[in-house]
């Protein structure tokens, strides 16, 4: 194993030849592994034939979503992580809430980056992106590349210098047998899922800012179990604020004697404006309507009072509009 940092976006390495996580760092064979592992399909009571729509509008079944992975990386590093997460998920909120945030970050990050890998491969194949990635958004390449470097912590020693690159929230749910579902937004690297009696929300490249942004409602919730509507409402708030977050985090990444040290550059940079664009209740209501689809709330109903969108929280503790 060599100690250099694998950087797949430098040569746009999404051809299913090298390991999605480690490139050609290891010399053992590469095999394709499922993005949704067997244990997750089992706990979700899925057959694997369930379908997901990708960004290119193609529809794929979960069983066909695979990434190339080095057998050594899978056996010695990914599999133990999966087992740790699987064990906690099987037990529910109490166990999941005790997981190290970094382990959740690794697992969610691996899941999200695997989807990115599939999307990148498809985009090149369909000639939406050139094979060298030259015509892809540099901001997205930067963000996705940083995520890949950080999840190399699955097999490398990665040290974050006095910061966490993520916001992760784990909440208890009122319903004890919530069916598994997940949602993600690749552009903002935002993810949420619910299962059994717990829900998870994660922003993977925000240096903790979204969690701080919603601190008031999170403090209000404490460890209270959320109704289905409340969980979706909290998700909507995070997805919208992740969209409003207007910085592209920069990091100093230094490999030193087998470890990778990552230091966050100040988010303020040379910009004097706030870290988030103005919160608009009208736009938020549109996001919320999508999350509340199962309950049939109309946009008119949600935003009937333009200054006070409806909420399942009392008080609503919504961010202040400008």
Based on secondary structure, the structural category is: alpha+beta
- What's the total helix number? 10
- What separation lies between the terminal Cα atoms? 52 Å
Spatial ordering of strands, largest sheet: 6-9-8-7
The major beta sheet can be summarized as: 4 strands, antiparallel
- Average pLDDT for all residues: 94
Count of discrete domains: 2
Strand residues, percent: 15-25%
Question: What is the N-to-C order of secondary-structure elements (H for helix, E for strand)?
Answer: EHEEEHHHHEEEEEHHHEEHH
By DSSP, the count of extended strands is 11
Helix content range: 25-40%
The low-pLDDT segments are none
- From the spread of the alpha carbons, the general shape counts as globular
Provide a concise account of the structure shown.
The chain is of the alpha+beta class. It has helices at residues 38-43, 71-91, 93-96, 101-125, 138-151, 209-213, 215-221, 228-244, 281-291, 299-302, and strands at 30-34, 51-53, 59-61, 66-70, 157-160, 167-172, 178-185, 190-196, 198-203, 251-256, 259-264.
List keywords for this structure.
single chain; 322 residues; alpha+beta; 2 domains; four-stranded antiparallel beta sheet; three-stranded mixed beta sheet; 11 strands
